[in-house]
Amino acid sequence: MHNTIQNYIPSQAIPRVLELLEHDNLIVLVKNERKTRHGDYRKLQNNKHQITINNNLNSYRFLITLIHEIAHFEAYKSFGRFIKPHGIEWKRTFQHLMLPFINPEVFPIDLLPLLANHFKNPKASSDTDAQLALALKQFDEPNNKTFIFELPLGETFKFRNKKIFKKGKKRTKRYECMELATGKMYLFNPNAEVEIIPSI
Q1: Which of 120, 140, 167, 180 is the most exposed place for a label (fewest CB within 10 A)?
Q2: Model confidence, pTM
């Protein structure tokens, strides 16, 4: 499994990542893309711990996601099962584990200030950091997806290849978007990836 992981992360990060994964009771699986998450962590009934990561992430996002999930495992080991999933114990653990990777040998130099800023107070998902998400997206394989915050007001788009919406005004952090078939209003994260379709 560790050999597989090496195919997905920047080469300079491999030795340290292998050190972090030296736990007999930690299993890491690479999965096909899941639309709602990049990765996850859970404790299994046999007292082993499992991390899963999507296989479609670029190497930099894959590394960040992997360390995010390892931080859940380490926080569980250090502080027990009653801590909040993305509470202060996890944040501190994530910062500590990620710090050695935030250097120009691992990440492109233009990502470093964005990473440094993000890890002052890491969030449950790097996707909620608009600048970092957009910077990481440039390393993805080309696709026809666009972030909602890049769309003009009133643009129509398809979300997850299903429902069609029209972009509305921004509230404090998220955008109001109307589902055209029902007229219902939904709130979208600015960094939700959508497919632009011709105006209806």
Answers
A1: 120
A2: 0.84
